[in-house]
Amino acid sequence: MGxxxxxxxxxxxxxxxxxxxxxxxxxxxYLSLVALLISxxxxxxxxxxxxxxxxxxxxxLKYIGxxxxxxxxxxxxxxxxxxxxxxxxxxxxxxxxFTFKKQKPQFQLRRYEKAGLFLLMVLVACAGYYVLVKxxxxxxxxxxxxxxxxxxxxxxVEKMGIVNFSFEDAFKYISRANLVTAADxxxxxxxxxxxxxxxxxxxxKYAGIxxxxxxxxxxxxxxxxxxxxxxxxxxxxxPNLDALAKSGVYFNNYYTQIGPGNTADAEFxxxxxxxxxxxxxxxxxxxxxxxxxxxxxxxxxxxxxxxLHGDVPTFWNRSNIYPNLGYKVQFSESDYVKSRSIxxxxxxxxxxxxxxxxxxxxxxxxxxxxxxxxxxxxxTPFELPQDLQTLDLSNQDNLNYTQQQYLESIxxxxxxxxxxxxxxxxxxxxxxxxxxxxxDHGSFxxxxxxxxxxxxxxxxxxxxxxxxxxxxxxxxxxxTIAASHIDLYPTITNLLGIxxxxxxxxxxxxxxxxxxxxxxxxxxxxxxxxxxxxxAFESNNNGVFEDSSCLSMPxxxxxxxxxxxxxxxxxxxxxxxSDTLIRGNLIKKQ
Length: 590
Hints:
Layout (H helix, E strand, L loop, with lengths): L1 H15 L7 H29 L18 H7 L9 H16 L8 H24 L18 H8 L1 H15 L5 H17 L15 E7 L10 E2 L2 E2 L2 H9 L1 E3 L2 E2 L7 H10 L9 H4 L8 H6 L4 E6 L8 H8 L3 E3 L19 H12 L6 E6 L26 H25 L7 E7 L7 H4 L16 E4 L6 E3 L3 E2 L3 H9 L19 E5 L6 E6 L2 E4 L10 E4 L4 E3 L5 H19 L7
Helix pairs in contact: 1-5, 2-4, 6-7, 8-18, 9-15, 14-15
């Protein structure tokens, strides 16, 4: 509360202190305009939140012409309460009226006194914002960061206030306009043109083998590949997923790419076959871009599109970006009933409640449909009620407390997934559905190292996640091809027998002759690992290519770094093109 007060005092000082340098008439004109701007921001945000349960972003203003279609709804949201947001404007007008009416001489500050007072106000304002940015976030154990790893716009607005949020969003939107040069645009357009003319049209393996089937994504929070087929004290950590992996197609050399958005980045790369950004959360900062995402692409094929998750609609700004990704129906926290609270993450809806109720909802969906189900219970800080901690982890000296709690959470999530699949198999829609189960990102607990199951390359630690495909026409069995989230989109379009959009970077894993996984540093954005079936690249910590390592695979035999140069340049170009398409909003609706 103290932080919020300081921040808003700082905001008020920054906004109103310039009035010191105006004459009497100019001062009140300036104060009136500032007060009116603040009132408009509050009113617009109030109406937008009342309508869409989210906060208005500047990037959405380009769609203002479409408000006529919802004019009736907006009108119904108008209420006398809106007058409260204009009280500050009316106060300024009243003070100005009585000041001019009395015509009494006013106390005048000298110019240097004004400058000194203005400087003092700015310093106080800066102190308030310093507290906002630097104060430790005790709830999430996050220091020196305004944005916690759990990005909920409600939480952010609670921290900084609605006006600060609106100003910051506007600044970021305006500054992004200069991030893409004309040369960048030309390169991206040439790439798209070339890709469109060279896109394969020959016979494809498994093309159309799942044509017309429902597509269901189950994105499992913090699930790592090393969790599967792992035993602790004679207990199977993920018995249900292990059994499902044996009955379906199990990709055990599969990776995620994320930036600061974690779960949201995993969603983005999977749904768009593009790389996440390393300094922005696309779900938040580029929510109003044009995308040819998988839901919208399947909608053109007659699919219904549904999103199911147990968070609030504003979590990761989903309520704003999901319509642009093609989701027509969203189910969120208020659409579920909690039998009990599970965990201490962003939401305490247990996975068992989530899956049971989601299964009931899915049976009413008109087929064919595409749906995503996003789990929560295995989210950090990995704390379950005692009666749900069913693994015996005694005498596991190789596991610290967090790692033990993580395994308990994954074990519980596995149980909920098993119950869901078992229930789903009893419904008439199961046989006409293909299910894709995958981890969104790693747990950041070093669990694989503690279990003695490190990834192929150190640069890919925390990035190897499982992908299990169930009920597809593709023969069951393990698949060791190097692949990642960006490859899922084109793989699905091939299985359904439809052509993917041009502006995607992934490859159909069943038909590519050049499988590749490219991983970027979470902070710098530089490529720190590239993996193919014959070669691997690992960046040095200083990011200099010549100081990096090149390995011949699968034996990991060191070879001269020059042998990785072509691969590195090619993947660097792909990452740059992906960034350009997103930052420049250059994706054309197809």
